[in-house]
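Retro notes (design track)

What went well: tokenization of the new backbones is finally stable.
What didn't: we kept losing track of which sequence belonged to which structure.
Fix going forward: every design gets posted as structure first, then sequence, in one message. First example under the new rule, 685 residues:
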């Protein structure tokens, strides 16, 4: 009955024998077919990118991920295992650049965007066969024949739908913000990307003399980025700390924090000799609270900054106050360049400082400065030399610190002010935290600790990327200032006179499509940015099904993931109108004719779904959450002989919960309902 087990442990041959058996007998396919009518268990698996080779880490994750669907299948559940490929992102661009022997955005555009995009499409499948073979070798079961692909139009269109939803809620905006920026790649990085590229470096900082106007004295200010000094527009002190004006042993008069005076000036002291008495490092002339120094003016380090301030009609080069200034390092006085730091930018906004950015998108200092064309890090020693030659450099101490580098190309990052599109995560922070509290995290310390803490401090998501190989941002702009978010191909075609029927939702093809401005009637053009590939990944639960354009029953039957859904929730005839007293009648009313001024109240009676033994499969409370989301997101539908339509809405949706005093028991086609406990009542015209 059974083959004799050989004593020779020929693992490779035995492994292949099992794989052949699975393939010949279509074991995986049969397991899916045989469980299709069983309660659904939803499992989301983050896919790989096929332009990189699989390694031992992928073996571990794929094995662990495969164990869960197998276990749930054996427990009697239907587990949909749709494979997928993450295809977008800068690593693909860099791979293609290397292949073509080109470097940077300028050379990409010289080569041609369309052929470059084609090469990206080819590159992402470089190791597809290796991935499929590897997945089979480790026994990873998934539908590899019908995968979702993030660069396909169906996937992109679903993302556009989601982005339009975000836009309609006022949560997608263009802002001016300091972002971690890679000048080599020409794009900002997310916080988790920055975290991947820190290196320990030794650099020189700068303690600089800023001449006080009207006094023979100097503010001593410290910076770790000398290349930002040509863009200086202010100095900042802590309003609550003590500052001193001192006569130093080097003959200069300085302002600095009292707590740091010994550390900064201590080296100026001279010990007594046979010929000379001891000379103290400094003598305190006056003492202040930081607030006392506010608005005290000083001379700019570089003349090139003056014309910029004049054009903006803004005043700069004075002392500002902010509590972020600490007494742990430096001099207690910080140099402010609002274009190159978040704290600096906040101070700039508070004091309406001029915006000066003498660094271009490639990370080179601009022609206005004496260091034109130098990369910022290469400019550091030149700035120090210049200041020293002019008697403005007090010290340039070496220091060791962790500095972020691009995890892709290893270029030092800079914190750089850019026009960026953001998702306003701060507006939904409380909801994120609340939802996270409902998740059964294993181990709990991850969800309640690291991830939970991150959510509590979440910042707006810098969504856009100034690159090519990514999902195009679905925003069109007009010269009149109007902006419009496109949510589907159908909407795009309806608003455009030059949209091809077979338009590909990718650069450069989508860039050529214009739409008519709803405000002024002129042509609107798509913004050039693409979106963060992590939005691709996060869209997988719905975009893999091309939702909401297709497969609504599949997606809505498994999302939100609330456990075992049993029968798909939306298969129940909740929204089919029937004649009074005939609730079991499967045939809906074909037509309802009413006067234009008639108002309707739509009522949902939500009850528990139970098995034959009374076990609750899907609770009324779970349904309530789902239906509330569906009503608000998708609107009320009307079932007809040709499908589903929608009533037009003439006033905002209003939901209210009503307690049902008497049990309303009905036998629906999926078993006996329990007591109707929750009603959502909404008035619609």
């Amino acid at each position: 009955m059974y083959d004799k087990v050989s004593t020779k442990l020929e693992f490779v041959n035995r492994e292949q024998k099992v794989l052949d058996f699975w393939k010949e007998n279509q074991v995986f396919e049969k397991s899916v077919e045989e469980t299709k009518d069983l309660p659904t268990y939803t499992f989301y698996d983050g896919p790989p990118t096929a332009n990189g080779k699989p390694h031992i880490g992928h073996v571990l994750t794929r094995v662990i991920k495969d164990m869960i669907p197998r276990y749930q299948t054996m427990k009697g559940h239907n587990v949909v295992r749709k494979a997928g490929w993450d295809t977008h992102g800068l690593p693909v661009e860099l791979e293609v650049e290397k292949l073509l022997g080109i470097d940077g955005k300028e050379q990409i555009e010289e080569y041609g965007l369309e052929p470059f995009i084609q090469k990206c499409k080819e590159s992402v499948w470089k190791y597809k066969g290796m991935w499929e073979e590897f997945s089979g070798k480790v026994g990873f079961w998934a539908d590899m024949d019908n995968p979702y692909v993030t660069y396909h139009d169906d996937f992109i269109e679903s993302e556009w739908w989601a982005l339009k939803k975000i836009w309609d809620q006022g949560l997608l905006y263009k802002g001016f913000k300091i972002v971690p920026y890679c000048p080599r790649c020409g794009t900002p990085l997310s916080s988790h990307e920055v975290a991947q590229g820190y290196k320990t470096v030794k650099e020189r900082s700068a303690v600089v003399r800023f001449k006080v106007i009207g006094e023979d004295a100097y503010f001593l200010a410290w910076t770790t980025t000398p290349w930002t000094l040509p863009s200086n527009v202010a100095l900042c002190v802590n309003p609550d700390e003590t500052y001193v004006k001192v006569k130093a042993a080097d003959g200069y008069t300085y302002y600095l924090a009292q707590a740091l005076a010994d550390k900064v000036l201590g080296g100026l002291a001279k010990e007594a000799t046979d010929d000379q008495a001891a000379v103290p490092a400094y003598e305190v002339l006056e003492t202040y609270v930081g607030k006392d120094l506010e608005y005290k003016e000083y001379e700019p380090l570089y003349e090139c900054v003056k014309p910029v301030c004049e054009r903006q009609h803004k005043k700069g080069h004075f002392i500002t106050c902010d509590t972020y200034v600490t007494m742990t390092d430096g001099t207690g006085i910080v140099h402010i360049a609002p274009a190159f730091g978040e704290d600096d930018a906040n101070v700039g906004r508070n004091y309406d400082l001029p915006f000066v950015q003498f660094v271009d998108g490639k990370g080179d200092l601009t022609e206005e400065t004496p260091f034109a064309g130098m990369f910022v890090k290469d400019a550091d020693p030149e700035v120090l030399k210049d200041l020293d030659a002019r008697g403005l450099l007090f010290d340039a101490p070496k220091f060791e610190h962790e500095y972020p580098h691009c995890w892709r190309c290893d270029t030092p990052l800079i914190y750089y002010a850019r026009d960026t599109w953001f998702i306003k995560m701060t507006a939904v922070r409380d909801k994120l935290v609340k939802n996270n509290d409902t998740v059964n995290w294993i181990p709990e310390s991850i969800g309640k600790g690291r991830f939970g803490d991150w959510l509590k401090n979440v910042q707006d998501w810098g969504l856009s990327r100034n690159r090519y190989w990514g999902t195009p941002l679905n925003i069109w702009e007009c010269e009149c200032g109007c902006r419009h978010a496109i949510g589907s191909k159908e909407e795009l075609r309806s608003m455009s006179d030059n949209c091809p029927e077979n338009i590909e939702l990718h650069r450069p093809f989508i860039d050529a499509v214009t739409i008519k401005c709803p405000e002024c009637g002129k042509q609107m053009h798509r913004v050039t940015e693409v979106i963060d590939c992590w939005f691709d990944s996060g869209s997988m639960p719905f975009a893999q099904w091309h939702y909401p354009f297709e497969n609504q029953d599949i997606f809505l039957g498994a999302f939100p993931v609330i456990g075992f859904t049993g029968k798909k929730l939306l298969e129940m005839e909740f929204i089919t109108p029937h004649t009074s007293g005939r609730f079991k009648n499967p045939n809906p009313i074909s037509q309802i004719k009413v006067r234009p001024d008639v108002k309707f109240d739509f009522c949902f009676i939500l009850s528990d779904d139970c098995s034959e033994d009374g076990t609750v499969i899907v609770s009324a409370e779970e349904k309530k959450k789902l239906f509330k989301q569906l009503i608000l997101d998708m609107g009320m539908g009307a079932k007809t002989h040709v499908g589903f339509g929608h009533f037009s809405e003439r006033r905002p949706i209003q939901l209210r919960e009503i307690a049902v005093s008497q049990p309303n028991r009905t036998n629906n086609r999926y078993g006996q309902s329990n007591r109707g406990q929750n009603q959502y009542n909404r008035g619609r015209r």
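Added context from the reviewer: The first strand starts at residue 40 and ends at 41.
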